[in-house]
Amino acid sequence: MNLQFVADGLLAGSMIGLGAIGVTLTYSILRFSNFAHGDFMAWGAYATLAVVGAIGAMFGTIAPIAPLSFGWPLIVALIIGMAATGLLALALDMVLFARLRAKGQAIIVVMASFGASMALRSLLEFIFTSRPTYFSRAIQIAMPIGFGIRITPDQIALLLLTAVLVLGVHLLMTRTQTGRSMQALSQNAALARIVGIDVAKVVRVTWIIGGGLACVAGVMIGMLIQIRPFMGFEMLLPMFAAAILGGIGSVPGAVLGGLIIGLAEAGAVQLIGAEWRAAISFIILMAVLFVRPIGLFGVGER
Q1: Which of 34, 45, 146, 188 has CA 20 to 30 A from 302's CA?
Q2: Which pTM was predicted?
């Protein structure tokens, strides 16, 4: 029995899940669907690539960490890229979204995010061109682990990184005062303001977390596939489907939703053909909205 699609689905689901965390937090706390979130993934990937290039120019060729295809420059660049993407998201909110939210019409903010998405994508294409690029062109030999599944050391490292980040965000949301404030604001914004929660701080943390995780997801795509200006835009539908499937506001739900979407897409590729891959997210999204609109772990409005 060949279960290679399971490994492929888990990897795709990890990327989708990390992006969906930002989508679900933004929607539950700020009450709007951010269509620019996918482009944060692309900007994070290109920012990380630029830092890797700068480190290479300063220190020369650096051997990778065996058995991985990358060395410490990518690890350092990823941290810097996460910070830069978080700041980009925060700056976009300060310049655009916060001003429009103050007017009290969510549809205007949604349309602004769609416009910002196109602007960010076009700017990336202007700076880096639309030609695909890569973190590394090294070819890794996939290791067989049974049941027809083969996986590379890079893929194992990325799955472990995803698990660590998801656990970290979950602990932040459940064990810290900031996380509890984020949950309170998502459940009842008016009451949260009355009891003295620092709304501005919660909004800043939301954008930084969402931007940082989007950067990691973008780097994962860049390492496993390729880096292109449109890479994040193509992830929008799977990310929104995962966020809604898991339940808006639920971090574990977003990750589980991402894994379900990833496995469903990989299974569809193996069973009925790659041309159906893009349709799977839409089919699952529609099914959830018809059967259980609040998602697996969602709660009704209070």
Answers
A1: 34
A2: 0.93
